Amino acid sequence: MPKLPTTLIDRFQRRVDYVRLSVTDRCDFRCVYCMAEKMTFVPKPQVLTLEEHFQLAQAFTELGVRKIRLTGGEPLIRTDILTLVKRLGRLPSLDQLVLTTNGSQLQRMATQLRDYGVKRVNISLDSLQARRFRQLTRHGHLDQVLAGIDAAVDAGFERVKLNAVILKGRNEDEVLDLVDFAHGRGIDIAFIEEMPLGRIEEHDRALSLCSSEELRAIIGQRYSMHSLGEPGGSDGPARYFGLPGSTTRVGFISPHSENFCHLCNRVRVTAEGRLLLCLGNEHSVDLRAILRQPHFTLDSLKSAIVEAMALKPERHHFDNEGEPQIVRFMNATGG
Ligand code: SAM
Ligand code: SF4
């Protein structure tokens, strides 16, 4: 076998040093933009075991990956997730172990997650009104998530950030309330434009899209925001703004209105071990097949990952009108 590299570089000379691992496609919520009301989940035997997730993380870090985000579905409902977190937290060359969660389990888990090495937590929050929160998540309880956010703040992570998807006519009247909420707690908030991942009947994605520009105008009515620089670096594709006299940063992730693919440093692995090279394209490699070979070695996994870099597309096309939707849902993608 040829000598394996210690960094991952794709055809466009982008260095890939960030992996998002979806540890489950299941979730206790059914957010209207993320899932259909009735979902079919991957049968359990096809989902990677926690040991397999760990082997993936090991392979990626030996190939120069420095940041791993656990996501899903809802990562914190995966049975025994804390045992995986604890092992990942001890990986010697991993600088940033981070997590994206809907917050429903944080009240009981935040402190342990922090103790086991999770540095930053992103928590999804689209509404501060209990009934509306319930409608948008279909199953969520606002009180539980707010208690989870407080637990995360108290646990002392390096950063806590809220993620909000704003839909026209649904929760755009709460943009300022959400910023006030983050500001009051000294935490960050990022607004994500809805992406066409998976077919949904609940609303028309094109009609409900609220662009980052519109959101900036709304927030500008109350706050004078100053730009904290161009997207890229450790903050990824978000464009961040500061609020006067506050540590709170307000970010905008704008896959429709601003293309940031040239800065892309990340890949995703789905719960069933499919390495996805791009959020908005189907190019992928089945890593589970390698993990489950009878004579599996970490080197064979590493070499499949290195070869996969040749498949990473130059960009997605969310901004092209008439482009077909991606059939897979965000929960299957590992958001
Ligand atoms: N369950 C966790 C959560 O909700 O934070 C982690 C997984 S979720 C798929 C990750 C993020 O993706 C959430 O912040 C959610 O709002 C966002 N998301 C889901 N579907 C989306 C879509 N179609 N467009 C944009 N963001 C989406
Ligand atoms: Fe679950 Fe997160 Fe998708 Fe909502 S956005 S349904 S919480 S995976």
Describe this structure in words.
The protein is an alpha/beta fold and 335 residues long. The protein has one domain (8-333): Alpha-Beta Barrel (TIM Barrel). Helix content is 29%, strand content 18%. The protein has eleven helices and 14 strands. The strands form two sheets. A twelve-stranded mixed β-sheet has the order 9-10-11-8-7-6-5-4-3-12-13-14. Strands 1-2 form a two-stranded antiparallel sheet. A hairpin with a 4-residue loop joins β12 (266-269) and β13. α1 (50-62) runs parallel beside α2 and α3 (106-115) runs parallel beside α5. The protein is globular. It starts with 7 loop residues before the first strand and ends with a helix. The relative contact order is 0.17. Residues 27, 29-31, 34-35, 72-74, 102, 124, 330-331 line the site of iron/sulfur cluster.
Name the CATH superfamily assignment: Aldolase class I
Give the DSSP E fraction (strand runs of 2 or more residues).
Answer: 15-25%
Number of domains: 1
Average pLDDT score: 91
Computed Rg: 19 Å
Which ligands does the model contain, each kind named once? S-adenosylmethionine, iron/sulfur cluster
| First and last CA, distance | 34 Å
Biggest sheet layout: 12 strands, mixed
Instruction: Name the shape in a single word.
Output: globular
Number of strands: 14
Level-2 CATH architecture: Alpha-Beta Barrel
User: Which spans have pLDDT < 50 for at least 5 consecutive residues?
Assistant: none
Helix coverage percent: 25-40%
CATH class division:
Alpha Beta
How do the helices and strands follow one another from N- to C-terminus? EEEHEHEHEHHEHEHHEEEEEEHHH
